[in-house]
């Protein structure tokens, strides 16, 4: 079965964290590719409406839903409204995320630890679980993109909670890919995306390790979009993410700490982190 996607005519695309940054860029690509319905989820109602207004009039029908991804009840309510309205999405882009850059013992248990795990990890599972049965049963070519991080492949100081949330995403997302294959649902492809730092403001102040410059959002989203349409299982950007992951796997831990800390500068990359204001 050829499951490569060309155009998105007739498709519904759901994007989380769609009010700004990468989410907004994904929405622009969905409109450009001719999606019939583009559904934008975000907690920022004002910014969400501004983005929707910019996208309207370009051929796609734009839908907005204010959703608090840290709350399962909010996800369930929004999903039910969507199913009763235009139906489950054909393309799901689990893009939303937050970061807290501090030592573990400095994290507040609710606003930092619980919020990070709820939004970065559990929300992706909950949203996918809401729509996956419909995506399976109707048999149409479908896609799920789960945005993880290079931080989910390598430990890093001042990223303990964020890294753990993304490690969990990688394990769950790639397991889901395998489960769909094993169960014979090859019409649904899962792409796990693991980027290094991207210039969206989310990681303001962070410094890219050696040979790993901060990524530009536009070419990154275009590359992810292509990977999604092709059904690429795993996408790491830039190439040094794959190299670092390989080295971490073969070097003794003490040797890797020297390479990552002193040579590549991975362990110092969050020293001047401020985040989005």
From TrEMBL:
Q: Which domain of life is it from?
A: Bacteria
Q: Does the keyword Nucleotide-binding apply?
A: no
Q: MF terms per GO, please?
A: 3-oxoacyl-[acyl-carrier-protein] reductase (NADPH) activity
Q: Which CDD domains match?
A: 17beta-HSDXI-like_SDR_c
Under which EC number(s) is this enzyme classified?
A: 1.1.1.100
Name the enzyme group at the top EC level: oxidoreductase
- Pfam families named among the record's database cross-references: adh_short (PF00106)
Keyword terms, alphabetized: Oxidoreductase
UniProt record similarity statement: Belongs to the short-chain dehydrogenases/reductases (SDR) family.
Q: Would you tell me the protein name for this molecule? A: 3-ketoacyl-ACP reductase
From what organism does this protein derive?
Paeniglutamicibacter gangotriensis Lz1y
